[in-house]
Structures are given as structure tokens and as C-alpha cells.
Amino acid sequence: METQKQAQIDNTGSLLQKMITAMRLYGPGIVLVLTMMGAGDLITSSVSGANYGYSLMWLLAGSLLIRYVIVNVMARFQLFNTSGMTILQGYAKIHKVFPYFFAVAAFVCGHLIVAVMIKGSGETLSVMFNFGSPFLWSVVVLLVSFFILGRDVYNKLEIVMKVLLAVLTLSFLGLAVYSVPDVGAMLIGTIGFGMPENTGAYGTLLVGISLVGAVAGSMTNLIYPYFLQDKGWVTPSHKRIQRNDLLFSFSVAIVINLSVWVVGAEILRPNGIQVETIDDISKALSIHLGAFGAWVFYLGVFGILYSTVIGTANGYAKVITDCIYKIKDLSFDKNHKIEDDKIFKWFSLLLLVTPIIWSIPGATGFVALTIFVNALNVVGLPAIAIGLLIISNKRSYLGSYTNNWFENAVLALTTILTIWSAYELLIGFFS
């Protein structure tokens, strides 16, 4: 028995050591995951769990699979294309409309995403420290971000993201374990492909589309190749560590998303609590876990929101800068350091500063704004999937490293799914 216990301790220690080693070696995937995992994951997962239990969990699993395939294919194009092109150059080769569309979409989506995160961060810090208005704390968040988005941005960004990743994992996983999840119901919900009837404040279709938009993502998928550049992973020899980095990061994303969902399904739903503000979640946790449990939740909330603020302002500004280069037919290859460019500096500043208007008292509520922005994200995904389907199958670019049948099937299915989702969203908006 003692030998078995020692073996378990050794295995735990070995696993912990592997995770620590991974955190030291990896980076771009961690930065991407914490950029994409913002209010969307927090709100849509908790709303889905609170309103529909585990019945929509298949959408979470499918969305994460879609996102992994899209991002990994983009990374392979970046590492293996024979012309040294960036991902945006590949899209521009198809048609000039792509850089125009992506530049506008990146600015609009980036502005709204940062707006949601700054607003949510302000509300969270106001509750955590129990003084000051949410708007005042949003301004503080904005000012602190200036120090991170100064010189040598990526290295500072990676360090901050790794710290926040540890905070998020410990906070949300601890809350999920305490909630005692129904594993059987989770399994049924993951493979059941069911769409329950409308209940709660938000309809099933809107929540489902918002979940796909939050997890499968849209413009945020485009920023991963730029983080690879910042890390110095720009050649085929980096493919193995890139893939492992992405697998590790997505595994953590799955754990965090499931943990938030479990809190919604096991604590909010049984008590009939509708998620309309962050306070709705924390009040339920206070009842079941006490003040400390609610504070741990808020700590995780701040981590997931603030990581997206700095990641989005940095990453989306790179996409916009690259698009402008393509529109002007300027030379810009994957070895160029975008962060030194004046265009990048101006747009990262705009994406960081202008969203503060949404934090002014009286503006749209945090949860409603989050669900709308996530659903809006779906509109840009067809263009990404269609373009990627074309450039990632060109042997003139990638030689033998083109897509396999499964990747092509996922991209094709994603295109169909998101066109339908965008159509339903627009019909619902104008009806």
C-alpha cells in the first residue's frame, strides 16, 4: 500500500514537473488561449449551464475542435509555406477583398471585445475590493495596460499570461470540483446533439450561436501566427513544439470552460438563478461556498477578462497592420517585427483607449453586450474558413503539407455552419 501511495505521489510530482516545464517552453498557444477566453467563455458557458444544464455541451466540444483545426492549419501555413508569407499574404493572394474585410472586421471586433473586457474587469475589481465605481476601476485597468503594451510587448505579454493561466486554472477548477459535477450528464450532453426548448433570459439559438462565436472564434484565430513570429517560431523545424504548445493550451482551455459550465449547471440551475450580471453568479457561490468562494470566483473572472484586454489590443493591431500593408502592396514577410511599426502602435493604442466609452455609467449591460459581441463574431468566420480552405490546399505554397481530408471536412462544415448562424442572427435582429 505504501509503495502504491508513493507511486501516486511520484506520478503527481512528475505531472506537475511536466506542466512547469511546458509553461517555461511554451508561449504562443497560451497567449492565444487567454486572448480568446474572455467574457464569452465565462458568460456563455455559465448561461448555457444555468439555463440548459449539460444539454448544449456538444456545442462546446465541437467549437473547440473547430478552433483547434483552424488555428493549427494557420500555423502550418505560416511555418511551411515556401514563399515566407504571413497568413494575411496568403489571403490577399486569393483576392484583394480579404485584407479590406479583415482590417475593418478586426477593428470593429477588437474594439467591442476590449470594451466587454474592460467593462467586466472594472465591475469585477469594484466588487473584489468593495470601493470605487466600476468605471473608475475600468480606467485603472486601461492605465495599467499601457505599461504592458509598451516596448518588448510579447515577452511581457507571455509572462503575464502564464501567471493569469495559473490563477484561472486553480480558481475555476477548484470551484468545479467543489460543485461535484454529474459526469454521466456531461457525457450525454457532449454526444447528445440536442437543442432544448427556450428557457431563461436568452433563447437557445442566441446562446448556441454565441457559444460557437465565443469558442470557435472569428478574427482572434488570425492572431496566433503573429504570436509565433514574436516567439521566433518561423521555420518547419518549429512544427513539433508549436503543435505541442497548441495542444497543451487547448487542453487547459477545455478544463477552464468545463469548470465554468459545471458551476452553471450544478449551482445556478438547481437554484433557478438566471445569469444577467456577474453578481448573479457570485451571489450563488456565496450561498454555497461562502465569501471566500465568491472572491476566488472573482479572481478567476478578472484573470479571464484582463488577459483578453491586453491580448486583443496587441493581436488585433497586428492583423490590422498586416492588412494595411497588403492593401498598399508593401513588402511585409513573416520575419518582420510588427511591434516596431508605427501603424501597429497607433492601432494598438486605439483598440485599448476607445472601448472605455462602453464603461461609462448607463451604457449597455455587461452580460447583454457580451452575448451580442460573441454572436457577432460568427459573421466573420465564413471568410476565414473559406480563404483558409483555399490557401491551405495549394501545393504551390505548401508542397506535401496541405490539408488532410479531416481538416478539409472541418473547414467546409464550419463554413456552412457559420453562414447559417450569421443568417439566423441577422434574421432575428431585423425581425
Quick synopsis:
The protein has 431 residues and is mainly alpha-helical. It has 18 helices and no strands. It has one domain (2-430): Amino acid/polyamine transporter I (Up-down Bundle).
Could you characterize what this model shows?
The chain crosses the membrane at residues 25-44, 56-77, 97-118, 124-147, 159-180, 200-224, 245-264, 284-306, 343-360, 366-390, 410-430. GO terms for molecular function: cadmium ion transmembrane transporter activity; manganese ion transmembrane transporter activity. Pfam families: Nramp. InterPro entries: NRAMP_fam. This is Mn2+/Fe2+ transporter. This protein is mostly helical and 431 residues long. It has one domain: Amino acid/polyamine transporter I, CATH 1.20.1740.10. 76% of the residues lie in helices and 0% in strands. The protein is built from 18 helices and no strands. The protein has helices at 2-25, 28-36, 39-52, 57-80, 87-94, 97-129, 134-148, 153-179, 183-191, 204-215, 224-231, 239-268, 278-327, 342-353, 366-377, 381-391, 395-398, 405-430. Helix 6 (97-129) packs antiparallel against helix 15, helix 8 runs antiparallel to helix 13 and helix 13 (278-327) runs antiparallel to helix 14. The longest helix has 50 residues, at 278-327. The radius of gyration is 21 Å and the shape is globular. The relative contact order is 0.20.
